[in-house]
Every structure is written in C-alpha cells, then in structure tokens.
Specification:
By secondary structure, the chain is α/β, with parallel strands linked by helices. The chain has 14 helices and 13 strands. The structure holds pyridoxal-5'-phosphate.
Length: about 375
C-alpha cells in the first residue's frame, strides 16, 4: 500500500542541482554544480558556536533571533553599506536566507498575488513562490550583459502583481545591477506599488570593484524593501542554516510569528558563532573574500574559454554561466552528462534557471572551490580543448 500524496507533495520534484550532485558522487567527480564554498569556517565563528554549546546555550531562543546576532547584523550593514537598521525592530534571523524569504514572503503575499522574477532565476525563489501559490511573472535578462530594461518590466506587470524578487549579485548569472538599472527598478516598483525582495546573500562576492548599490540604501525604496542576507556563503556554513531578513518593523513582526510556526527559531548556539564572526573578523576578511574569488573567477573563466565553453564573466556571486553549445549532445542535459563522463566535472544544466525552453545552451559552474580542487577542475577542462 502507498499513501496518496497531496497535490503539493507531487508537484515538487528533485532539483537538477541535487540530481547532478548525486550523479557526480556516483562517478566520484568534482562537484561544480552545488553552490557551496569548501573553505574552512573562520576561527571565531567555529569557536563562538562551540563555546556557546559548551556553556549551555542550547535551548530555543526568541523567534526573531538572538539579540546579539541581530545587533551584529545591524552593525555589519552600517559598516558595509552605511545604512542604519534597527536591530530590535527590523532584523529577523531565520533558518538561512531561505527561511527568511519564506517567512517574509508569507507575511506579505497571499495566494494569487503575482510576483516578478528575473530569469535566469534562483530555483528556490521560483519554487517558494509556487508553493505559496503566487504565480511568477518572468522577465528574461539576456547574456552577455543581462541588461534590465524598463520595457520588459512594464510588459510583465498586471493589476495583480504585488512584488518583485531580485537576486543581486545574481545566482546564477553573476549580474550586479548598475545604478542606472536600479533607478529603473525603483521607478517601476514605486509606480506599481510593489514590494521589493532583494536577496543579497552574495553581497561580499563582488569583483572588479563593481559598486553594489543595495536598494535599502535608497531612501525611496527602503519602506518597500525586504533585504535577505545570510552566513551560508560568507562563513562557508551552508549546513548551519543561518540567514536573516531586514524589513520594515510591521513586516519583521509578522514574519517573526510565521518564522516561529515553521522553524521556531534558528539554531541558538550557532547564532552566537555568526555574531562573533561579524564582530571579531577584521575588515580585511571581507575584502579578502572578494579578492580571492575574483582570482578564482578569472582562473576558471580562462580555462572555460580555452576549452571552447564561452564564459559569461560574472560581476559578483561565485558562479559562471557558460555557453556549452560546442559540446556534443542535443541539449544542456546531454551536454552536462557528456562533460561529467569526459572530465568528471559536474555543472548545472541551464534549464534549471528558466521556466520555459530557455537555457538550453548554458550550464552553471560554481568556482568557489579550494585552490587545488579548482586547479584540478581547470586541468580537466583542458581535456576538452
Ligand atoms: C540567491 C540565493 N539565495 C539564498 C540561498 C540559500 O541561502 P541559505 O543557505 O542562507 O538558505 C542561495 C544558495 O545557493 C542562493 O544562491
């Protein structure tokens, strides 16, 4: 006998990223599909969490998170972006940026509310909206510059549109919005009275001194912006499940109640570790992240180029979308499997980031790997050249 699954239970299949990860394990390959950084956890972060466990900070904390971490997040945004945030009223700590998005989206959106999503998109954004029964309205941005145009936004909006979700820097394209594009976006969300969800989990990963302008720093966007951030990428702690939202007080309050229902709270002792990392790590830690990953980006993009897989060099985040149409195969799926067989390198087929037939010439590679792993990946790409 097998139980009848709900419609929701049947609708969500395994993501292509997880499927490629499983295939990669099977052939003992190098996993450039999954978006995790394999660098060590910074010492104050690990030590802070261990000490907190030993000292007995192992119970539930407030649904909105530990005061110390919320203060540290507010101070971090003041230092990095020059923006003043109320730790008590505007910061919610959750189970990753994923949890923060879920809680704030639940607080702001009802089933049937439409949400604009840029394509290529981050799969969890699309899936979370689907789970909430909020239809996505897609705005396609095209390589090589993934330029945002006002006309494309206007074509997507309807009277039912309530929000827009932005990943900046973008996973998967690495696009960072220019000031001009942000101004277009600001005019648009104001004109249509939309909520702006801005996922900035890769804010520290910015290259070539490209200026990252966060919507929350613009006075006119602040009252309608939910900023999502997290520690998974910054401190290489994807398994700790720690992230946050910065939102207007009434949204933070409602989202905290929803966060309580789903997660109760984020892991208490691990929050202590993240707070200590933000407070104790030298500013050079944060600039070092950008410098080290820029080096890796250049190394890996050059190797892709030499192998005939044209890379769309990212301005931020730690992925590169490459044109893999030179590889044998009918489409992105077949080509990614060919790549895995020939080189043992796993990438994500481009279709994972589009709702329709888009992305069939593309694959996404994660270059946030230890130097020796990345060197080996580059060597293996050389087998294709
Ligand atoms: C754009 C984006 N947002 C959120 C997440 C997930 O963050 P977290 O681990 O904090 O839930 C990821 C992870 O890949 C991501 O790429």
């Amino acid at each position: 006998m097998s139980l009848q699954l709900s419609q929701r239970g049947q609708r969500f299949s395994q993501s292509l990223i997880r499927a490629m990860t499983r295939e990669c394990k099977r052939v003992d390959g190098i996993n450039l599909a999954q978006g995790l950084c394999d660098l060590p956890v910074p010492a104050p972060v690990a030590a802070g969490a261990c000490r907190a466990i030993e000292q007995g900070h192992n119970s539930y904390c407030a649904a909105e998170g530990l005061g110390a971490l919320r203060q540290a997040i507010a101070a971090h945004h003041q230092r990095q972006q020059g923006v003043t945030v109320s730790a008590e009223r505007e910061v919610l700590v959750s189970a990753g940026a994923t949890g923060a998005f879920y809680a704030t989206a639940q607080a702001l959106l009802d089933p049937g509310d439409e949400v604009i999503l840029f394509e290529p998109y981050y799969g969890y954004h699309a899936a979370t909206l689907e789970l909430m029964e909020c239809p996505a309205r897609y705005v396609r941005l095209d390589a090589p510059h993934w330029t945002l145009e006002a006309t494309a936004l206007e074509a997507a909006v309807t009277p039912r549109t309530r929000a827009l979700v932005l990943s900046n820097p973008s996973n998967p394209s690495g696009k960072v919005l220019s000031r001009k594009e942000l101004a277009i976006l600001a005019d648009f969300v104001e004109a249509h009275d939309l909520v702006l969800f801005c996922d900035e989990i890769y804010a520290a990963f910015i290259y070539d001194d490209w200026p990252l302008v966060s919507p929350i720093t613009l006075q006119r966007l602040r009252p309608r912006t939910v900023t999502l951030g997290g520690f998974s990428k910054l401190f290489s702690i994807t398994g700790w499940r720690l992230g946050y939202a910065i939102a207007p007080p009434e949204v933070t309050e409602a989202a905290s109640r929803l966060n309580d229902l789903v997660y109760v709270c984020a892991p208490t002792p691990l929050q202590v570790g993240a707070a200590e990392g933000l407070l104790q790590l030298d500013p050079t830690f944060f600039t070092g992240i950008a410098r080290d990953h820029q080096y890796k980006r250049d190394l890996f993009c050059d190797a892709l180029h030499k192998a005939g897989l044209y890379p769309h060099r990212p301005q931020g985040a730690y992925y590169v979308m490459a044109d893999i149409s030179q590889l044998p195969g009918e489409d992105d799926l077949e080509r990614c499997h060919f790549l895995l067989q020939q080189t043992g390198l796993a990438a994500v087929p481009g279709r994972a980031f589009y709702h329709d037939e888009g992305g069939r010439d593309l694959a996404r590679f994660c270059f946030a790997k230890r130097p020796e792993v990345l060197d080996e990946a580059c060597r293996r790409l050389g087998r294709l050249g």
